[in-house]
Amino acid sequence: MYSFILDLHSITRWIVLITGIVATIAAIIGWVKKKEWTATDNKMGLIYTISFDIQLLLGLMLYLWLSPLTKLAFTDFGAAMADKDLRFYAVEHLAMMLLALILAHVGRVLSKKAIGVKKFMWAAIFFGISILLVLGSIPWERPLL
Q1: Helices 118-137 and 39-61: angle between axes, nearest 10 degrees
Q2: Neighbour-count burial for 53-65, b at 16+ CB within 10 Å, e otherwise
Q3: What are phi and psi of 142, to 5 degrees?
Q4: How far is 62 from 60, CA to CA, in rounded Å?
Q5: What is the pLDDT of residues 38-67, one digit of tens each?
């Protein structure tokens, strides 16, 4: 079960990255070119946040129940904080990804409530920061697929 969920979590990161980058670029273009907000623009943010939500659920399954790394970290949390790799998985990865997810959702809500070009502005800012946090918090030493 652990391997399956870890593989699924690893594959899903690409969906999150691609949808987040696409939504961010579309928002930047819409903001700069002062375009009209469309249903497609709305769907890009929706798909980004939904894929990120699924990724969170998979990650929480690993974090709370399945991962031997977090199980080891929870046995002696103080010692885990002294170990760079354990600290990353026990604290840093989770904290940064949760922050990125929250920012993605804030961007989605603000873009839905805004009027005119500000829809793009809020989406670009919050999706952009969110995707930068994701890129900085992925364990790139793990297999890419």
Answers
A1: 30
A2: eebbebbebbbee
A3: -75, 160
A4: 5
A5: 999 999 999 999 999 999 999 999 999 999
Whether the full predicted model's pTM is greater than 0.90, yes or no, is yes
Cα 97 from Cα 93, distance rounded (Å): 6
The CA radius of gyration of the chain, in Å to the nearest whole number, is 17
Q: Is 139 helix (H, G, I), strand (E, B) or coil?
A: coil
Cβ count near 68 (within 10 Å): 9
Distance CA 20, CA 51 (A): 9
Instruction: Quote the pLDDT of residue 31.
Output: 98
Cα distances from 21 to residues 26, 43, 89, in angstroms, run 8, 14, 24
Tokens of 60: 């929480």
Quickly state the pLDDT bin for 144 (edges 50, 70, 90): confident
